[in-house]
Each structure stands twice: as C-alpha cells, then as structure tokens.
From TrEMBL:
Stored CDD domains: RPE
Ligand binding (substrate): S8, H64, G140, F141, G142, G143, D173, G174, G175, G195, S196
Protein purpose: Catalyzes the reversible epimerization of D-ribulose 5-phosphate to D-xylulose 5-phosphate.
Cofactor(s) annotated in UniProt: Co(2+); Fe(2+); Zn(2+); a divalent metal cation
Pathway(s) of this molecule: Carbohydrate degradation
Active site, per annotation: D33, D173
EC number: 5.1.3.1
Highest taxon of the lineage: Bacteria
HAMAP family: RPE
Organism: Streptomyces katrae
Manner of cofactor binding, per the entry note: Binds 1 divalent metal cation per subunit.
Protein name: Ribulose-phosphate 3-epimerase
Residues at which a divalent metal cation binds: H31, D33, H64, D173
Length: 228
C-alpha cells in the first residue's frame, strides 16, 4: 500500500509560493485549499494562483475546494492545472455528474466530508470517485488539533472501500502530524495532508520523509492492509 504525503500550502508563506513548493520536493502532491468565505469562514486563493502554481512546480496539485457551487467551479480548476480536484459532499448539487466531469477533463475526482457528515449515505457513489477525503478537523482554518473522534469514521470508510473492492484512495486532512499520523494510518488512511507539521519544520522535505516512514510502518502493521 503506497503512502502519500501531501503538504498543504495553507501553512506556507503565500508571498513565496514557488519557493515553498520547492521546499517540499519529494512530496507526492501539493495540497491547495481553495476557500470562498461562504462555505467556510475564510478566503484563500482562486484559479489564477492555481494556474501560476502549476507552472512553478513539478509536484502535481491536489485541490481541495471548500466552496459553494463546486458543480460550476471545479472544472475550471482542472483546466488551471490541478491533477486532483476534491469537492465537498455538502456543497455539490450533483456529485456523480461532477465527479464524471472532473474525470472527463483529465483529473482525479475526490469527495470530502465534514466531520459531522456520515460516509454511509454516500456508499453508492464511491465507485464514481478516485479518492475520499475525511476531514479530521472542521474545514476552514489551518493549524487545528486533530479530532480523534474521527478515527471510527476513517475505519468505516476503509471497510466500505474493501466491501466494494474499490481502488480508492482514503485521504485525511486536519491536525496530521508526527504524533497523530500513525493512529490515522492504522485506522485506514493512505493519503495524508500535513500543513504546519511540514511547513513549520526546519527542513520541510525531511518532515515529509519522516511522516511517510511513520505512516508506512503503521499501515504495514494494520489489519486492514494485510490483504493488499
């Protein structure tokens, strides 16, 4: 089972995004949070910055759209250079249609769930997705503490993926650090968004490697990974 570490530029210096991207060379994806000050109470960046960032780095961009009306806006982020686009289940009017449109434009389609949104009600559309993102904090701000009460939800999501025999990545975002990543990997995640744990480190690239090693060891010992 391949572990992926996706540093979040929400914790980077926005005035030096090109250099901050270079600082995490070796990362699997660069996680980009798009917030509109409507779906979440914060405002970050939009299509022009994503276009510029995609030209400034060879690391593929993992877009997390914390916005209203992703059905309208998500395809534009694929065109801007995103390799993966995540929309929120709570915001999408037609998630199956949107996932298919994202895929048709050439990116991976992913769906995110807030902490209070059950995974079970979306079981039937999992085959339409390439990744599910379980938020382990309330979306909208970086630097929050990991919510341990989300671990059972991560486990249930992994069980649903196995139940349907899907090749589906399971991402977690929120409070992922050296002290939490092993627990969430053991619960079933294999893609990890890390913000301050990477960009707050003296050597961000080394922090990525350390997190990947920790998660890999935890997954290797996890019951859910034994058959993979």
């Amino acid at each position: 089972m391949a572990v992926q570490i996706n540093p979040s530029i929400l914790s980077a210096d926005f005035a030096r995004l090109a250099e901050e991207a270079k600082a995490v060379e070796g990362a699997d994806w660069l996680h980009v949070d798009v917030m509109d000050n409507h779906f979440v109470p914060n405002l970050t960046l939009g299509v022009p910055v994503v276009e510029s960032l995609s030209r400034a780095t060879d690391i593929p961009l993992d877009l997390h759209l914390m916005i209203e009306d992703p059905d309208r806006w998500a395809p534009q982020y694929v065109e801007a250079g995103a390799g993966s686009v995540t929309f929120h289940a709570e915001a999408a009017a037609a998630p199956v249609r949107l996932a298919r449109e994202i895929r048709a434009k050439g990116a991976r389609a992913a769906m995110a769930l807030k902490p209070g949104t059950p995974i079970e009600q979306y079981e039937d559309i999992l085959p339409e997705l390439d990744m599910v993102l379980i938020m382990t904090v309330e979306p909208g701000f970086g630097g929050q503490s990991f919510l341990d009460i989300m671990l059972p939800k991560v486990r249930r999501t992994r069980e649903l993926i196995a139940k349907h025999g899907l090749d589906l990545w399971l991402q977690v975002d929120g409070g992922v650090s050296a002290t939490t990543i092993e627990r969430v990997a053991e619960a079933g995640a294999d893609v990890f968004v890390a913000g301050s744990a990477v960009y707050g480190a003296v050597d961000p690239a080394a922090a990525v490697r350390t997190l990947r090693d920790q998660a890999g060891a935890a997954i290797a010992a996890a019951p859910w990974a034994c058959d993979h």
